[in-house]
């Protein structure tokens, strides 16, 4: 008599496939049931009220404020014009000849300004009184056209 072609291993694999298929169908049914209960997209919507709080109710159109687009400032506020072209007087607080830079303290405002050797018209040393002009550089305001007084 011939033996059955179906082995124990084949039976187990078939059982696993059937169980997987049934689990998949069960999960699909659960998703369908949850979808109908949840309400879909409307239940997931969130609104911001007039005070900036997040709520689940839509905002009241009567409390709506109109804002002119020209009054909105995006980014950094505009700077006031600085008087950079006027000649200033100051004192060299630090200067390094080997590195080619230093700092000047303005005698009126007591602010420190960076000076590079390329901005000098004459050689300067520490504690020299100088006149200079200001120019906007990449990293801030720099002293240029520096000359001894």
Keywords:
alpha+beta, 2 helices, OB fold (Dihydrolipoamide Acetyltransferase, E2P), five-stranded mixed β-barrel, elongated, 149 residues
Produce a short descriptive summary:
It is built from two helices and seven strands. With 149 residues, the chain is of the alpha+beta class.
Characterization of the model:
The chain has 149 residues and is α+β, with helices and mostly antiparallel strands. The chain has 2 domains: 69 residues, no CATH class; 61 residues, Nucleic acid-binding proteins (OB fold (Dihydrolipoamide Acetyltransferase, E2P)), CATH 2.40.50. The chain is 23% helix and 28% strand. The protein is built from 2 helices and 7 strands. It is elongated.
Order of helices and strands: HHEEEEEEE
**Span from first to last CA?**
123 Å
Uncertain spans: none
Specify the overall morphology.
elongated
What's the total count of β strands?
Answer: 7
Tally of helical runs: 2
Spatial arrangement of strands, main beta sheet: 3-4-5-7-6
**What is the total number of structural domains?**
2
> Mean pLDDT across all residues, rounded?
87
* Rg estimate, integer Å: 39 Å
Structural class: alpha+beta
Helix content: 10-25%
Q: What characterizes the major β-sheet?
A: 5 strands, mixed, barrel
Our estimate of the beta-strand percent is 25-35%
Sequence-ordered SSE layout with sheet pairings:
Layout: H1 8-38, H2 41-44, E1 47-48, E2 54-55, E3 88-96, E4 101-106, E5 112-116, E6 129-137, E7 140-148
Parallel strand pairs: 5-7
Antiparallel strand pairs: 1-2, 3-4, 3-6, 4-5, 6-7
